[in-house]
Amino acid sequence: MNTAAIETNTVNHPVVPKDQWVARRKALLAREKELTHLRDQIARERRALPWTRVDKNYTFEAPEGRRALADLFEGRRQLLVQHFMFGPDWEQGCPSCSFMADHIEGMNVHLAHRDVTVLVVSRASLAEIERFRQRMGWQFKWVSAHDSDFNYDFGVSFKSQEWAEGKGEVYYNYSVQPFPAEEAPGVSVFYKNDAGEVFHTYSTFGRGVEVMMGTYNMLDLLPKGRDEHNPVYAMDWVRHHDRYEPAPAAKPEAAAGSCCHTQA
Fold this sequence. Notes:
Helix content is about 30%, strand content about 20%. The chain is of the alpha+beta class. It folds into 2 domains: about 20-50; about 50-210, Glutaredoxin. Strand 2 (about 60) and strand 3 form a beta hairpin. It is globular.
């Protein structure tokens, strides 16, 4: 099946009797089960990846003072890090990273009961981080790596000279590619054993960070889907949650074929 040819259209959408709908739904269910089993298999392969020891002594500015990476596990063995795009000279954090971070609060208590500490890391100063965190009303732990190699070593920050010399091309998501900024999103996972040794077990970048965006999972269930139309930057609709205008009323639907929706 050519999935590229499947386009969501809510105008004159096919309507069929219930028995035909159930037959089509059961066919889709079989595909959904394939995806579920594939996701389970990939998760097993992810857990089976070898680890690499973190030998560098990374330290961060935290509200309670200078802390080493090993200190930030807060007594747990697993650490999940959101690499949040917030550079030293930025007025505010990235809207898309903020969209990711909006999902942390609801997950945090459940993750803590599965031996997981969630940590957000940016290169902005701690003062700027705290100002923005308070504005957004977030309670999760957020530290500054402004004078550390952490972001550079884990592939989510790029030195200005290198970025300029590469004409915007950087090593990101395990390949050299164009990137429009000197900060990038990512998620990294670390494990600390009983001897206090820290290991890097996994990182994901690009669309891999959608794992933190539960809103997308909900939108993917709906008739209009994500409803994104910008082929260059699909998330151009996202705002900081305190910067949205009141949600508008639905506009009249355009006639089928009156616009072109390019899937990024």
